[in-house]
Amino acid sequence: MHKQQIIIYPEFSADGLGSAWAAWEFLGDGAYYKPYRYNDPLPEFESGAEVFVLGCGIPLRILFDGAIQAERIVVIESQSHYEAKYLEQLKAQPVPHNITFIIDSSRSACVMAWEFFNHTKTPLLLEMIQDHNQGRFSIETSSFVVSALNNRLPIEITEFGGISAGELRAEGKALNEQTRRIASRLMKARHVVCLGEVVGMAINAPPAFANDLGLMLSMEKGSFGMTYHFNGERNAWLCSLRSNGSVNVGLLAEKFGGGGNDRASGFSVALEKFVGLIGTKL
After folding, report:
1. Tell me, what's the pLDDT at 158?
2. pLDDT digits (tens, 9 = 90+) for 169-191
């Protein structure tokens, strides 16, 4: 009997899509591909399944519960604080023998997934996603490519490999120019915010501006920049944090139940608690 294979990847994310495609290139249509939203339950799977969790930041307690039913769970993770959580949990109780963690905050999940499944040279499009997500910008046009890719989401996993980087560059350049013009106007509504003991700048803005506005805000204050918007489907405020390197926003988001990496992270706040958070007096 064929063993069920489940691929779990972040929904509406270029890194998540790239991770799922890396698995699909190796496993093909024989596996089941399940998009995931942070803090949702683990997708259902058969007893004895092989489960691959690609850059989702799923809480350990959920993974440990899943390990009871799965034959094997492989977790590929790039969030820097995730390793600290894992080590802390290891001290508290043994990690199930059938869970393997592959954690590297210096790389994106899509690149790690490609190397795990394929063992060949990493495709340029995945390298560009990593370059952008890690805030390196060593590939000159990576910001254009990732902007265009995010704008096209959702995209079928099977279509990812056929996307032209050249088309994305041209499309993303125009998008970025327009986004930055609008972001400059939105900056007039910025305000000071305090998360715990860390002071930064924030603004109410659509998620499409999280990166540009977040970085602009972080550079102005020399701290973190936060954009936030209300999500009616989840009945919560979604907050995105960005940093130019002066503050580890992954650790900051973790304090509010979220996660991410050193330079980009996020968390959600229940409707009734949001005013208290934003209204913090400094």
Report:
1. 95
2. 999 999 989 988 998 899 999 99
In angstroms, the Cα distances linking 88 to 81, 115, 268 are: 11, 27, 23
Q: Say which range, 89-93, 196-200, 244-248, has the weakest mean pLDDT.
A: 89-93
206-236 tens-digit pLDDT: 988 888 899 899 998 889 999 999 998 888 9
H-type alpha helices, the chain: 14-27, 60-67, 80-92, 109-117, 124-133, 142-152, 165-186, 210-221, 249-254, 271-278
Pick the CATH number of 5-174 from 3.40.50, 3.90.1640, 3.40.390, 2.40.50: 3.90.1640
pTM for this one?
Answer: 0.83
| C-beta neighbour count of 124 within 10 angstroms | 13
**The residue type at 29:** D
Phi-psi region of 94 (alpha: psi -120 to 50; beta: other; left: phi over 0): beta
Give dist(CA 126, CA 118) in Å, integer. Answer: 13
The domain segmentation of the chain, as residue ranges, is: 5-174, 190-278
Domains 5-174 and 190-278 share a fold: no
The Cα–Cα gap between 111 and 126 comes to 6
- How far lies 109's CA from each of 20, 71, 248, in Å? 10, 22, 19
Amino acid at 229: H
| Domain 190-278 bears CATH identifier 3.10.310.30 | yes
